[in-house]
Amino acid sequence: MIALLKMMANEYSPKAVPALIGSQRDRIIQNLTGCSDPYYQLKNKANEKALEMFPDLLKKVESIPPSNRLRMACLISCLGNIIEYDVPNHNADIDAALWELDSHGFQINDIDELKKLMGNGVEILYLTDNAGEIAFDRLVVQELQRQGCAVTVAVKGGPSLNDALLEDAEKVGMIDEANRIITTGSSAVGVNLSEASSEFMETYRSVDLIISKGMANWETLTEYEAPCPIMFLFRTKCEPVAASIKTPIGKNIAKLVKKGWKL
Amino acid sequence: MIALLKMMANEYSPKAVPALIGSQRDRIIQNLTGCSDPYYQLKNKANEKALEMFPDLLKKVESIPPSNRLRMACLISCLGNIIEYDVPNHNADIDAALWELDSHGFQINDIDELKKLMGNGVEILYLTDNAGEIAFDRLVVQELQRQGCAVTVAVKGGPSLNDALLEDAEKVGMIDEANRIITTGSSAVGVNLSEASSEFMETYRSVDLIISKGMANWETLTEYEAPCPIMFLFRTKCEPVAASIKTPIGKNIAKLVKKGWKL
Questions:
Q1: What is the full DSSP assignment across B77-135?
Q2: pLDDT digits over A180-200, tens only?
Q3: Which residue of chain B comes nearest to A12, CA vs CA?
Q4: B8 in reach of chain A (CB within 8 A)
Q5: Is any Cβ of chain B less than 8 angstroms from the Cβ of A15?
Q6: Nearest residue in chain B measured CA to CA from A8
């Protein structure tokens, strides 16, 4: 508590970026407890449960007309952001949750605009969020690659909350799905460009399109000018983030911004 | 927020006294906002509402056998600690709340022990808590003085949350009720002996008995060795305080400790 209060006292300001303070918080906890990956077991459990659901979800996407598949894959990917992985009768819950998601759909829906940017040879950087959820991201990556895009998937470079690492990408089959897997080069929450690896920075600066999954990537990428079009795909799970994108809490967002955009 | 975080980072420790940190918090807010008494309007409203209820509560006490009156007055005084002063139909609510209080009674009830300490010429220091509530404390003070005790009532020496000040003691008639009124000499939450006036300290050290009302007085007096028997009269309104006296939350406490006691 003392270490966290001292850090907060030093770092907090009206311009502070919560996710960056969150990274510092996590590093203090890791250092003081000696536990480098406090979410390790939770991430494994989430991966296992998500993998159990994956075949049914894949069938769901492939059972609908091709023109609707990207939207459905994106919805399922948002679903991965909110489900409880330890619900016993998960199949019923997935169906209910999917039905619920589908009936609500996206509060902001730029997926038709996104489709216009897709095509043969288009290079995409896909920034993942949590373990477990990364299994569902495979469905989006698959649809993008079916349209001829080359997708580089980025996971975190070190333990960061319950975010996906290389080992999670491997466990859920994302390594086989994506054209290429890289890491951010950092354990920072979201994306902290000042800590990113040169491999990540080269990809970030050269791709035609970025797909940014989850709230933490929104919270951090909005600190920079968009280096190319960015599709922000997330669910508004807290008031400050919901307010920042001017929607209520608990909504699905698919917001496409242009190169040069800044919040 | 920055000023509060810096204060917390400096002051927090496993041995920190929450009420003393609370005093520092309030002083920072008073200094930065330039508002020396942020609870002024709330206190006035609480005094007015409590005064409206006072005649009925006095009748209630005087309608029961004398041997039970002190217990009833103490219960009503605890009630003052929890009622919502802005409930429109307050009479119905008081009756319901009193019935509820009476049926639950005291989780710790040392009132019979307290009675044994009362008698002609016994000097008592009564430490008040909130404005509004101080009107109900009159009923306890009245009962004590009927037994021949001389009661000195202490209010805070300066604005401290919604605690009663001299002006509140005057508004609710406590100045006429008590044998003597003093202040703690400080705006500290609860009792901070290092900030107390010499008048307060002389009374604190010389009386035969202290009656300490409310959680903040419990939180702070427990830092010192009891200078005489102390009757702690409060309701457990938060988990840490409830845990410190080993009762559940939401209970009425009338705990008598001996001279020399320390938590």
A1: HHHTTT--TT-TTHHHHHHHHHHHHHHH-EEEE-HHHHHHH--TT-EEEEE--BTTHHH
A2: 999 999 999 999 999 999 999
A3: B2
A4: yes
A5: no
A6: B5
